[in-house]
Structure formats: structure tokens, C-alpha cells
Amino acid sequence: MGRGAAVACAAFFAAAVLALPATASASSDPANVPWETFLPALPSSAAVQPHAVPFCGRATPRCIDTEIRRLRAAQTRFGCDHRGVFATTYLELTLQFRRTIRARPHFFDDPRYLYLEDALFADVYFNTLGAYQRGKPVAPAWQIAFDTARSSNVNAAQDMLLGINAHVQNDMPFVIAALGIRMRNSASRKPDHDRVNEILDAAYESVVRAVQDRYDPLMATTNPSWTFADDAAGLEMVKEWREGVWRNAERLLAAKSDSERAQITQQIQQYAAGWAQMIANPLQVPDYRAQRDAYCVARLG
User: Fold this and answer.
1) Average pLDDT value for residue range 124-133
2) What is the pLDDT of residue 238?
3) Contacts of 62 (CB under 8 A, 6+ apart)
4) Residue 247: CA atoms inside 13 Å, Cβ hemisphere, count?
5) I want to staple 6 with a disulfide (CB 3.0 to 4.6 A). Which of 1, 179, 255, 287 is the partner?
6) What is the DSSP string of the chain?
7) How many whole angstroms separate alpha carbon 254 and alpha carbon 218?
8) pLDDT per position as a tens digit, 75-126
9) pLDDT over 70 for what percent of the chain?
């Protein structure tokens, strides 16, 4: 699917609700083909291995609980600030992650790596939030997402997509590259990366309903519960994004010089920024911001 067509579809359906279906039978959607699991990892080194990260010195499920507390606090702090849309999305996804690992302790080949990845990924998000609030430079995709949340007349589906795009396409390649893409025995970590897509699938409805309940009644129109069309379109787009994330992490680790790595970094950021511009621009309804704010205040008191 071309970028323009994909964004037009996503902006209408708001379907890409999430940065994470390994088996077709596990999905609630029809025709959920796990094509990404058939794409092998490229040859790479096992030199980079996971390590302690902020808020997760020891890789246990408690790291997930910590991020849930931090995200709940962010959601509460934002109130009706439109940045709360992505914080709510992120929280619902992390809750589903915790439910999955509790119900299926052998879901991942190396769950400890996922605990560290989740913590580092969240830390990048919170650091970016802090930088923006202090007026410091942030990646272009995040700048567009935050500026749009601050002043634009977009709907909550667009706010959600802007946050997902920035966090997944812009941030995740660097997180994965920092923690490594192969186990010590050289086995690829891509199967676990692909399995996270199943968590996205399982969390889809809870994310949409949570955003609808707090921020925008239009979600009931853009993401209705009575059809699978938006689920399939958006989840396919996010799977495509996450496949690109893995390939960009491979590129970062394969870079032979600082200049080559800097060039790849620039390409990653520009690509995510291009998506952000397209997501933010198509649908701007005059005065819709005021309508959303009034709805949120009524819902949250």
C-alpha cells in the first residue's frame, strides 16, 4: 500500500492503534495473515546484548508494572490535554502486554528482553515529553505530534496515529539496536518482535474504547465496534511499520562508521516525519478542538 493511500485509510478508520499477531488463529479479525513472520532476519552480529536500563535494573515483570504506574500518572496529569490520547493508548497496550505474559508465560522465547525493551522504550517517550516541555529539540515526528496536540483541530484518531507513528517508526529502531537483535547463541530475536503484533491485535478494541470514552466521541464512527474493516487496515499498517523498524535496527547495527549511522538516523527521522505530516494534514475540522475539549471535560469532570 502506498503511503498516501495508507494514511488516507488510516486517518478515516484510525485503525493503527498500537506499536505490537504471530498466528492467524490468534486474531479476532478475519484474514489476519502473519506475513511478517515469513520474512527472515538478515545476518548480523550477536555482539550487542540486553543490559540494565532506567526503571528496569533487573529484567522482571515488575518493570512492566513500573511503566504502567508511570503511564497512569501521565494520563492523569494530562487530563484533557490532547497528548493524553497517546498516553492512554500506550497505557492500554502496556496493560495488554502484562495480561499476556501473565496468562502465557512462555509466549516469548526471551521475555526478559521484552521487559527491558518495554522499559527503555517508555523511557525514550518520557524523556521526549520532558524535552518538549522544556523547549528542547525533539525528533521531527514528535514535534509534529506534540504541536498538533497543542493547537490543531484534528480528531483523536489522528492524535493517536501521530503518537504511534513517532514512537514506533522514529524511536523503536534505536531502542532495538541498543539492546541487540540476536541472542548470545546467535538466534534472531525477530520472532519475539513479530509476536508482539498479537498483543496489538488483542488490545485494539480496548484502546479505541478508552480513547473514545475520554477524548472523542468520533472514535465510535472512525473505529466502530460492528466492523472489522478498520481493525484489519490499521493493524496491517502497524505491522508494516514494525517490519520497517526491525530492518532499520539491522541497518543501524550494520553501519560501518559514525557518518553512515548518522545518515541512517536522518533517514529514519525524515521518514517518520513524512508520515506525521500526512497524518496531521488531511482532516482539520474548524472548531472541532473546542468540541473535543467540552466532551472531555464533561467525561472527566
Assistant:
1) 98
2) 87
3) none
4) 11
5) 1
6) --HHHHHHHHHHH----------GGG-SSTT---GGGGSPPPP--S------BTTBSS-STHHHHHHHHHHHHHHHHHTTSTTHHHHHHHHHHHHHHHHHHHH-TTSSS-HHHHHHHHHHHHHHHHHHHHHHHTT----HHHHHHHHHHHH----HHHHHHHHHHIIIIIIHHHHHHHH-SB-TT--BSHHHHHHTHHHHHHHHHHHHHHHHHHT-TTHHHHS-TT-SHHHHHHHHHHHHHHHHHHHHHHHHHH--SHHHHHHHHHHHHHHHHHHHHHHHSS---TTHHHHHHHHHHHHH-
7) 44
8) 999 999 999 999 999 999 999 999 999 999 999 999 999 999 999 999 999 9
9) 82
Report the SS3 class of residue 47: coil
- The CA dihedral of 107, 235, 53, 95, to the nearest 10 degrees, is -70
Half-sphere exposure of 69 (CA within 13 A, CB side): 7
pTM score, whole prediction: 0.85
Instruction: Look at 81-90, 104-113, 232-241, 264-273 and tell me which has the smallest mean pLDDT.
Output: 232-241
Tell me how far the alpha carbon of residue 126 is from its chain's centroid.
14
Which backbone phi and psi does 182 adopt, to 5 degrees?
-135, 145
Enter the DSSP assignment of 182.
B
Using the Cα atoms of residue 40, residue 45, residue 46 and residue 50 in order, give the sign of their dihedral: negative
Helix (H, G, I), strand (E, B) or coil at 56: strand
List the one residue out of 72, 65, 66, 69 whose CA is nearest residue 87: 72
Task: Flag whether pLDDT at 283 surpasses 80.
Answer: no
Number of residues that this document lists for the chain = 301
